[in-house]
Amino acid sequence: MSSCWRTGACSTSQAPRPRGTRSSRWIWDSSCRPCRSCASSPTVLLSPQAPSPYPTTSIARSPDVSWQSSIPHPDDGETPLVEQQPDYAAPAVDKALDILETLAAAADGLSQLDIAKAVDRSPGQIFRVLLRLEKRGYLHRDPQSGLYQLSMRLFDLAHRHEPTRSLIAAAMPAMRRVADATRQSCNLGVIDEGRVRIIAQVESPDDFGFHVRIGALFPLDGTASGNVLAAFSSVVHTDVPESVLADIRRDRLLVRPDSAQPGITDIVHPILRSGLDEAVAALTVPYIATSYSRVPAEDVSAAAARGAREIEHALGI
Q1: Fewer beta carbons below 10 Å: N end or C end of the chain?
Q2: Which CATH class is domain 91-155?
């Protein structure tokens, strides 16, 4: 079967064919019955075997790739263009990521049916993906209840990442000293896709303290640590007033009541690169002023400042 170059119509059945699509090479064929739009001009047909009389661009085809192209007529002077980047679909990968994200957000284990409903797929569509994730150690399935939960494998992978691992290793000794000196907990946050990600936490040595989950995400605008990181970043866009950011840069410190937890005062110091107003992290002490608090807020802030400088020295920045 041959296809008209100008209209994409089949020369025998006149079935429409989108302009610019092709499955083999272009050739000239005098046996074409001219259609109305090209009756007065030469017609180029598709043939599965014959070579092209003029140069063409070879494009690797895949059923999961969508292309938009413009194939020129020999006489129209146009240049072939690829106007859209390929969209490589990987359904199995998408299903695996959807499952991991669903289980990460679940407080308890989920059954196969629960997971299927959450990711908008049938149980059969996710069955093999669940088996592979379990076999690779990313999921744990309770043999009695049949419920799936995340294992610690993703946590382990995250902490193998060299920049994160180096930062945590450099920060933990100083953070322990801060916690011991202040009798308060402290945590370390970094910018992760426009939000604050907690990557390290040291508990209060006392019986009472405030805990922030490692891996937790918080908005930049609504948190003290986020404001500090935004103040010392040239790439992050925030709605925090410039006057507030300027005060943070001047003081290299932010102390304010926590916006989400009444009774908590956030004391935040940036971890800065030497000679640059660029923060690699923020050290936060969520200060609790109760009868358990042995150290006043001013001394806590001073201890956190020393800890931040120790982390910078340990990082060599």
Answers
A1: N
A2: mainly alpha
Model-level pTM greater than 0.85? Answer: no
Residue 47: phi, psi to the nearest 5? -135, 140
Show the tokens assigned to 229: 């990181």
- Residue by residue, pLDDT tens for the chain (317 residues) are 444 444 444 444 444 444 444 444 444 444 445 454 444 444 444 444 445 444 444 444 434 433 333 444 444 454 444 445 677 889 999 999 999 999 998 888 999 999 999 999 999 999 999 999 999 999 999 999 999 999 888 877 776 766 788 899 999 999 999 999 999 999 999 998 889 999 999 999 988 889 999 989 999 998 999 999 999 988 778 889 999 999 999 999 999 999 888 889 999 999 998 767 889 999 999 999 877 778 999 999 999 999 999 999 998 87
Phi, psi of 141 (to 5 degrees): -110, 120
Residue showing tokens 């070879």:
58
Helix (H, G, I), strand (E, B) or coil at 182: helix
| CA dist list (Å): 225 to 43, 58, 261, 317 | 68, 52, 14, 20
Please tell me the distance from the alpha carbon of residue 131 to that of residue 123, in angstroms, as a whole number. Answer: 12
Q: Spelled out in words, what is the top-level CATH class assigned to the domain 161-315?
A: alpha beta
Six token digits for residue 224 = 């003290």
Residue 205: DSSP 8-state = S
Nearest to 284 by CA among 268, 306, 264: 268
